[in-house]
Design brief:
The chain is of the alpha+beta class and 783 residues long. Helix content is 47%, strand content 19%. The longest helix is centred in the C-terminal third of the chain and has 34 residues.
Length: 783
């Protein structure tokens, strides 16, 4: 009989192994998965961890045929249009980094899979695939064959089952802890020698009840530590596991030699308090995530059409049957039915594929689609789900730097662990000369009390609390990684129109050839289809001038930074820059949008008012290098110069490409750039900057390319928001000082033999809980 383990899944090989390429497998299923991965150049899967795979089930070929029933299939589809389909599947078998590697490279195995992104914490995979060529049933069967069978049952029930398992572990450890303490009561009173037979009996009871605690309640710590040591690394569970083993081994030795229960009460208490600390940590993380996803997120809104006119509403107020309007470049917040004749929808926000899809009247349009072209109307089919847009925004991949501070803390924790093991070793050598019977108790106390859990938790909880606080103040961050990039900012680059100037307070005047009512209606329809602040003001100006009706525009086109065009009754109407409209520019110093139709031309001149408080906040930002890059003419150069500090850089007549290149040039000189713009012409620069912040005005534009969204009314408090973000460094410092001080004090007591393992087990989770409270208290104080 072979004693080898399976090369793929790690299970013992029973009987004769299945051999392929000089590797042994426990079954043909594991061999088949290895062969599949090897043939598709995914053998790196086995280099990341030893025997990382999950044994595939021997499922029949028809197991997932129920997914071919349209009514059942529709329950699991998040998005489907044309060739592309998106699903979010729960894969309970995900267990390590190799699983993530394999699943995110599954497109190499099946070409009809476009992308796969894994959420390790939730054991979920968001998969985009070509639904016409790859049925959902075949996708599920492929996942099953490689060892990741999807769970199509109730996710809520699955979560409850996982919670129950954790509570079982906690309950067993708590029951054992209480029972062993009760049986050890004579030991605490110092009368153990008077009841020797009873002492021996209760010692063996303690040993018996400790077995499920060791092999069930504490098993996750053993597995985690084993994986770390197998790959020559350290994690927080290594010293914990060493402490558990040492404490348990010493106690068993004492019991077998008739010396009493040893430290069984400390052992059970240690596991019990560890699990309590872990439960508290998970609950706190969920609380932070909940507030971020649902109550402190970006202010996305939409135009709702009523009998008496239009109104701007937050997306939560939308109800089934409401009629909404979507303008060029706006993102649809809810599943809807198209009421206009035609619309061009870009689903790259949902699927990653940027090819627009043409939709006709009556077609179903999924949430997350971005309109390209003329304004359209839709009827709400499902009430909006903001959390779905939240998840989409967070899934968009970026090549921006990782969070160096959190990486630094992780490395510091590893060095701390190595130092801790050395200290424990030195202490054991010293006590070997002083009192060898105390070695186990002292070494275990050292390993337990000096666990760097508080050190490791200080960063995530601090950034989570700061992110929540900024959201309440009007600055909504994409993730906690933005905080540290924001704290490293050296240069702040502003757009002018719609950012420094008030997009809702433009004074618009028309100059040029008289327009008849039909021409006004066409230009109103063009301007009303754009989200640019100047276009919105021109639409309001025309609407206030006379009774305006929307007319159907054909061949609508908006070129960012240039203008808008469309055809009506065979005539071409243009609204935009002078060069775009092919007319002469009347005043180089004037901010204006020109029009042209046949031989008629004119312009809408705009005089923008500055946002309230913008001058004061710019002066308070003097510790940054400030820049202005505007697509407007330089007529406001003197005004901008008076607003900004003397060393500021001010540039006009910049196209969207010029803005992107300007940010790239600053970065090439070692600058850390924060770009603030209105999210339309500035989209490229926002994406390129180290931190891109989109200003949200009356239409609450949602900008997937940005790292953050700021409410326009809160821009006057930008310096305060940046100070709040920088306060995270102080919070982390305080938490780290507390953690280090706690460890130094705890170690001094443990090394000198004045700290029992049980007390150390109680103090360890208290240190982590204290860090959470410290971080939360300082956040409240910062308000």
């Amino acid at each position: 009989m072979s004693s080898e383990t399976c090369y793929h899944c790690g299970d013992a090989v029973i009987g004769n192994p299945v051999v392929y390429q000089e590797k042994e497998f426990c079954c043909n299923g594991c061999k088949g998965v290895y062969q599949l991965l090897s043939e598709n150049n995914l053998a790196n899967f086995y280099e990341m961890e030893r025997q990382p795979g999950t044994k595939p089930t021997a499922a029949n070929a028809h197991k997932y045929n129920f997914l071919d029933v349209d009514s059942i299939r529709a329950k699991f589809i998040e998005f489907e249009d044309g060739d592309l389909t998106r699903v979010n599947l729960h894969l309970p078998s995900i267990h390590c980094s190799s699983c993530i590697y394999l699943l995110e490279n599954i497109a190499k195995i099946e070409p009809n899979i476009v992308s796969c992104q894994v959420n390790f914490a939730k054991r979920e995979a968001s998969i985009v695939f070509r639904g016409e060529k790859l049925p959902l049933s075949r996708l599920a069967d492929l996942l099953d064959k490689i060892g990741y069978p999807p769970n199509f049952g109730s996710r809520g029930q699955s979560d409850k089952k996982e919670d129950r398992t954790y509570l079982y572990k906690l309950g067993i450890a708590g029951f054992a802890f209480g029972s062993i303490m009760l049986w050890s009561f004579p030991e605490y009173l110092g009368i153990q020698n008077d009841f020797q037979d009873f002492r021996n009996f209760t010692s063996y009871l303690s040993f018996g009840i400790s077995i499920p605690v060791l092999f069930y309640s504490a098993r996750d710590y053993f597995i985690s530590a084993y994986k770390a040591l197998r790959y020559r690394s350290l994690n927080l569970d290594v010293p914990i596991t060493i402490g558990i083993i040492a404490l348990y081994a010493q106690s068993v030795y004492s019991i077998l030699h008739g010396d009493g229960p040893g430290y069984m009460d400390s052992f059970a208490g240690f596991i019990f308090f560890l699990l309590i600390g872990k439960w508290f940590q998970s609950k706190t993380y969920r609380m932070l995530s909940f507030e971020r996803d649902y109550t402190s997120y970006f202010p996305l809104a939409i135009t709702r059409i009523l009998l008496e006119g239009e109104e701007i509403v937050e997306i939560e107020q939308l109800k089934e049957g409401d009629t909404i309007a979507l303008r060029n470049d706006e993102v649809l917040p809810c599943d809807s039915i198209l009421q206009s004749d035609e619309a061009k929808i870009d689903y790259s926000f949902v699927t990653g594929e940027s090819t627009p899809v043409i939709k006709r009247k009556g077609d179903f349009v999924y949430a997350g689609g971005r309109l390209e072209g003329y304004r359209v109307e839709l009827i709400v089919e499902k009430e909006s789900n903001r959390s779905q847009l939240t998840r989409m925004w967070n899934e968009i991949k970026t090549d921006k730097e990782e969070v160096a501070g959190l990486q630094y803390q992780s490395k510091l924790s590893v060095f701390f662990l190595a130092a801790l093991l050395i200290v424990a070793l030195i202490a054991s050598v010293i006590w070997a000369f002083l009192d060898p019977t105390q070695i186990t108790r002292i070494v275990v106390s050292i390993l337990i009390v000096a666990c760097p859990c508080a050190l490791a938790l200080s960063g995530p909880f601090t950034f989570g609390n700061i992110m929540r606080l900024l959201g309440r103040k009007g600055l909504y961050l994409k993730n906690t990684g933005v905080i540290e990039r924001l704290n490293k900012t050296t240069d702040i680059v502003f757009d002018k129109t719609g950012t420094l100037t008030n997009g809702s307070a433009l004074n618009v005047h028309y100059f040029g050839a008289d327009l008849n009512e039909l021409q006004k209606q066409v230009f109103y329809s063009l301007a009303n289809s754009s989200t640019h602040p100047l276009s919105r003001m021109i639409a309001d100006y025309l609407r206030n001038e006379s009774e305006i009706k929307t007319v159907p525009i054909e061949n609508f086109e908006e070129i960012k930074g240039k203008g808008i065009s469309g055809e009506y009754n065979g005539q071409l109407f243009k609204l935009g820059s002078a060069s775009y409209c092919e007319v002469a520019k009347t005043d180089e110093q004037e901010t204006a949008s020109y029009i042209s139709v046949d031989k008629t031309s004119g312009r809408f001149a705009a005089d923008a008012d500055l946002r309230p408080g913008i001058k004061e906040v710019l002066q308070r930002l003097s510790n940054y290098q400030l820049h202005v890059i505007s697509g407007d003419s330089n007529k406001d150069e003197e005004k901008m110069g008076s607003l900004f500090p003397a060393n500021s850089q001010i540039h006009f007549n910049y196209s969207p490409k010029d803005k992107l290149d300007y940010v790239a040039q600053l970065q090439a000189h070692g600058k850390r750039v924060c770009m603030i713009g209105d999210g339309l012409n500035d989209a490229g620069a926002l994406a390129k900057a180290n931190v891109g912040i989109a200003v949200s005005e009356d239409v609450f534009r949602f900008t997937p390319s940005s790292d953050a969204i700021i409410e326009a009314s809160k821009l006057k408090s930008l310096d305060s928001l940046l100070i709040t973000s920088a306060f995270s460094k102080t919070m982390i410092t305080v938490c780290m000082v507390f953690s280090i001080s706690y460890n130094v004090v705890g170690l001094s007591f443990a090394i000198t033999g004045n700290l029992s393992p049980l007390v150390a087990a109680i103090l360890m989770p208290i240190s982590s809980i204290t860090v959470v409270f410290l971080s939360t208290f300082m956040t409240i104080f910062r308000k």
